[in-house]
Amino acid sequence: MQIVLLDTLTFGNTDLSVFDDLGEVSLYKTTSPAQTQERIANANVIITNKVVITKEFMLCSKSLKLICIAATGMNNVDLDAAKELNVEVKNVAGYSTDSVIQHTFSMLFYLLGHSRYYDEVVKDGSYSRSPIFTDVSHPFFEVKGKKWGIIGLGSIGRGVANIAKAFGAELFYYSTSGVNRTEDFQRTSLDEMLKSCDIITIHAPLNEKTDNLLDYKELATCKDGVTILNLGRGGIINEEAVAKIIDEKNIFFGLDVLTKEPMRENHPLLNVKNKENLYISPHIAWTSVEAREKLITSVIENIKSSF
């Protein structure tokens, strides 16, 4: 079996030798569109995370039987063409749930506790010159008793909600699909969530109902001091609107996903004045060591179940 992995750099130092037991393996750290056709020409199995596989590429790969997407989203493969050409496509779901939940709270506490400021005030020597033993210049609040809104109550959103509940937060959710998913938490409108919640976390997919869901108009209605975290998909929050309002209003933003990744140079978010209110991580919520190991194990199982 000819197995081709097109973008192994996204797996970091995860052990990929497990593929050797399945056939002859070709590993590529990254693959550009210009390189894709040549690299998959003799493949029986393609493994891709973000490399786009079009109908044209499938037609040039005469022995192709299976495309394994090393991710949950399947938008990088032409699924209609795969069906037409009798090429099986399999993705992996649920492998990073715990990792994303954990990173949600990591982002929250970084912003909530003013970690950047307090780390720097100690390391730059300011604390050593303090007349008192503490620093209360950047006050923070407890999660207990605060209103926490969740946009996207899938497995990740529900996991976040359960932990937030353990901290004593009052939970609300907004259904982007309009489906009432649970009786465990209070359903609310987006408008009411923005006006009343102290913490809002996004765990929804990007689709026609969530694209540009939070633009400047919506963000302007938010409660003063609110913390908004996007761990769903870039495009759900308008980034230009964030860059504008963060210098106008006391809102904290944590973004793990952006519309374009990697982040484009000279992005307006890089030039905000109120930097302490902004925390951006480079799409790492899914990348815990355990999550990547689960991902590779699941890809292996997907191959085994097809041959």
Outline the fold blueprint.
Elements: E1 2-5, E2 24-27, H1 33-40, E3 45-48, H2 55-60, E4 66-69, H3 79-84, E5 88-90, H4 97-112, H5 115-123, E6 147-151, H6 155-166, E7 170-174, E8 186-187, H7 190-196, E9 199-202, H8 216-219, E10 227-230, H9 239-245, E11 252-255, E12 278-280, H10 289-304
Parallel strand pairs: 1-2, 1-3, 3-4, 4-5, 6-7, 6-9, 7-8, 9-10, 10-11, 11-12
Helix pairs in contact: 4-6
Can you walk me through this structure?
This protein is an alpha/beta fold and 307 residues long. The protein folds into 2 domains: 2-95 and 289-304, NAD(P)-binding Rossmann-like Domain (Rossmann fold, 3-Layer(aba) Sandwich); 97-280, 3-Layer(aba) Sandwich (Rossmann fold). 30% of the residues lie in helices and 15% in strands. The protein has 10 helices and 12 strands. The protein has helices at residues 33-40, 55-60, 79-84, 97-112, 115-123, 155-166, 190-196, 216-219, 239-245, 289-304; strands at 2-5, 24-27, 45-48, 66-69, 88-90, 147-151, 170-174, 186-187, 199-202, 227-230, 252-255, 278-280. Strands 8-7-6-9-10-11-12 form a 7-stranded parallel sheet, sandwiched between helices. Strands 2-1-3-4-5 form a 5-stranded parallel sheet. Helix 4 crosses helix 6. It is elongated. The termini are close together. The model has no long low-confidence stretch (mean pLDDT 96).
Largest sheet: 7 strands, parallel
CATH class of the largest domain: Alpha Beta
Strand residue content: 5-15%
In total, the number of strands is 12
Report low-confidence residues grouped into runs of 5 or more: none
Give me the CATH fold name of the largest domain: Rossmann fold
CATH superfamily of the largest domain: NAD(P)-binding Rossmann-like Domain
Strand order of the largest sheet: 8-7-6-9-10-11-12
Computed Rg: 22 Å
**What does the average pLDDT come to?**
96
The global form is elongated
Q: Give me the strand/helix succession.
A: EEHEHEHEHHEHEEHEHEHEEH
Total discrete domains? 2
Helix tally equals: 10
Secondary-structure-derived class = alpha/beta
CATH architecture descriptor name of the largest domain? 3-Layer(aba) Sandwich
